[in-house]
Specification:
The structure holds 2 protein chains of 2 kinds.
Chain A: H1 38-51, E1 54-59, E2 65-66, E3 72-73, E4 78-86, E5 89-98, E6 115-122, E7 129-133, E8 146-151, E9 164-169
Antiparallel strand pairs in A: 1-2, 1-4, 3-4, 5-6, 5-8, 6-7, 8-9
Chain B: E1 6-12, H1 24-38, E2 48-52, H2 55-58, H3 63-66, E3 78-81, H4 87-100, E4 106-114, H5 120-123, H6 139-155, H7 159-173, H8 188-193, E5 196-198, E6 201-202, E7 211-219, H9 221-227, E8 232-241, H10 257-269, H11 275-278, E9 281-283, H12 289-298, H13 307-312, H14 329-332, H15 336-352, E10 365-372, E11 376-383
Parallel strand pairs in B: 2-3, 2-4, 9-10
Antiparallel strand pairs in B: 1-7, 1-8, 4-7, 5-6, 8-11, 10-11
Helix pairs in contact in B: 4-15, 7-12
């Protein structure tokens, strides 16, 4: 028996009960939140917005450069002392092409599919960040491929990670 | 731990995509009734209740207040946990600790989710840090796709090997009357031909969304022996975290630090040196086929990079050396707040000898794990004799 299977599909439904207890109560929520970014994110986002600079912090103990920047290295339990510029180039360390619709939580709008989505290790960084790729053809993407950040024009930047539109291959794909 | 604790009774709903016929408290009550009924227990014998789910999925805050009467918790200590995919295993661990501490003799643990009632894919984005991760999210599936790509690069595991895990899960689900996705005729070819969601993950590589609940009774030694002839003794428990950002290690799935830490700890506490030889069955929280293969490695069932050969060699089949997820696993049944408790419950059924058609003969030692977004792992060892 297949009772229905999968992430977004409809499956089989439980049997209709003898009395009609299938009344549905609809509820639509529209809550608004406003978060304090805090010291480290504010400094990072300000540099991104005003200068298109991407920065991490270096751990005093293990010397690793952590992006996103943070006050303490989670594995060493030591404070990070120094801000370091990283990127805008880097390499892909993991990737996929997303082919299922997903509502962007920041905009409420479904991102058009397909799109490339990757772990990016920026030059000078020891950790990876998730971001989008300009390329959406799976066979044109590979681990180790060099990419670079594409920034929004300065007047449109608002101090979020979305000020980086996506990452673009440094070398165009062979048949482009 | 202080004194011993043992699982004595387990109950589950029959998990499906949508339970239109019951409200959340009614659905949870069904699992509790089945649990207590399986050993002729009654709500008056329960000293305390622990409950957990993913609250934002259904959009109901303080669900424990809303359902207290339905689950027999009114007038008793009622503890609520809320820690993502791991929550069900955390409920089991908390119940065991409450009993082991000597505070309560009999504790009812409950996990549930009614995913059909909310917006799971969007709600799950609220687990991301608002400054760093929410604006660059691609849902659980995008995340798993990237994670799986790093595991493929690290281990060379193939799509065929992953598909064998999908086949194993959905076939074994047919032996489990509570399992959601039951497909006796599923083939590797069918998995490989299913729709691509986020490469390398295809539709049949992923767990479903289910409506369902699970309940487990944990008791102190004297009470446990009165309640059931063969309790499942809690021999070891552990919980472990990773650092906060997904990208802090690209091997977050390929070499899952929190899973290595939690499983190494329970092996050590339970005196297990060679888990593949010493465990009789494992119920692991595998959100996707590739994750199960990666977890074989982090759980030390094989060397690094050998997860694919383990499924090729049939080691983790029901007749193999170390059966993994004879219940059909998460790939067959996934009401998230219940999912990790179902792992512990299924491991307990195996030790108690009550797993029915998916029973592995002669289980003395079983492992169960809970998983939360590669960031958090719970591990539990259950045994047939008191530690």
């Amino acid at each position: 028996m297949d009772r229905g299977c999968h992430p977004e599909g409809v499956g089989a439904v439980s049997p209709t009960p003898p009395i009609d207890s299938s009344l549905r109560l609809e509820y639509v929520a529209d809550f608004e939140y406003s978060y304090a970014a805090g010291e480290f994110a504010s400094r990072f986002m300000n540099a991104l917005r005003t200068q298109a600079r991407i920065q991490g912090t270096r751990c005093e103990a293990c010397s690793k450069v952590l992006v996103p920047p943070r006050p303490v290295c989670g594995l060493c339990l030591e404070r990070t002392a120094e801000w370091v510029d990283v990127g805008p180039g880097g390499v892909i360390t993991g990737y996929t092409v997303v082919e299922v619709p997903f509502i962007d939580p920041m905009t409420g709008i479904k991102r058009p599919i397909p799109y490339g989505f990757a772990f990016v290790r920026l030059d000078g960084a020891d950790t990876n960040i998730y971001h989008f790729l300009e390329e959406s053809r799976h066979d044109k993407i590979s681990i180790g491929m060099r990419i670079t950040a594409v920034f929004k024009p300065a007047p449109e930047r608002d101090g979020t990670l979305a000020d980086i539109i996506h990452f673009r291959a440094e070398e165009p794909a062979a048949d482009d | 731990m202080g004194r011993n604790a043992a699982i004595v009774a387990v109950g589950q709903t029959d998990h499906v995509s949508r339970r239109l016929d019951v409200s959340i408290p009614e659905m949870v009550r069904e699992a509790v009734d089945r649990c207590l009924g399986s050993k002729d227990l009654n709500p008056g014998q329960i000293d305390a209740v622990v409950v957990g789910n993913m609250e934002l999925f259904e959009g109901i805050n303080f669900p424990e207040l809303w359902m207290a009467s339905a689950i027999g918790a009114a007038g008793k200590p009622l503890f609520k946990l809320n820690n993502g995919g791991t929550v069900g295993a955390s409920v089991a661990v908390a119940a065991a600790h409450l009993v082991a501490s000597g505070l309560y003799d009999v504790v009812l643990g409950i996990g549930y989710e009614k995913q059909s009632e909310g917006e799971t894919q969007s709600a799950i984005t609220t687990v991301g840090d608002p400054a760093w991760e929410r604006s660059v999210m691609a849902g659980a599936i995008g995340n798993f796709g990237v994670m799986a790509s790093t595991y493929v690069a690290e281990s060379g595991v193939t799509a065929e090997q992953a598909a064998k895990v999908a086949v194993k899960a959905r076939r074994y689900a047919c032996l489990n009357p509570h399992a959601h996705v039951q497909r006796p005729d599923i083939t590797v070819e069918e998995v490989l031909a299913s729709r691509m969601l986020a490469a390398p993950l295809r539709l049949l590589d992923m767990c479903p969304s289910s409506d369902g609940a699970c309940a487990v009774v944990t008791a102190a030694p004297d009470r446990a022996r009165e309640m059931t002839p063969r309790p499942a003794w809690v021999a070891a428990t552990e919980t472990a975290h990773d650092t906060q950002f997904m990208g802090d290690s690209p091997k977050r799935l390929a070499r899952m630090r929190s899973l290595v830490a939690a499983s190494d700890s329970v092996y050590s506490k339970a005196g297990i040196v060679d888990p593949r030889a010493e465990l009789d069955v494992a119920e692991v929280y595998e959100p996707a086929t590739y994750a199960e293969l990666a977890m074989y490695e982090s759980l030390r069932f094989c060397d690094w990079g050998e997860g694919g050969s383990l499924i090729d060699e049939g080691v983790t089949l029901m007749e193999g050396e170390l059966p993994v997820n004879p219940s059909g696993g998460v790939l067959s049944t996934n009401p998230v707040g219940a999912t990790a408790l179902i792992r512990v419950a299924e491991a307990a059924l195996q030790v108690m000898g009550e797993a029915g058609e998916h029973q592995i003969p002669g289980v003395e030692t079983a492992l169960a794990t809970g998983y939360g977004g590669n960031a958090w792992t719970e591990a539990v060892i259950l045994k047939g004799s008191a530690p």
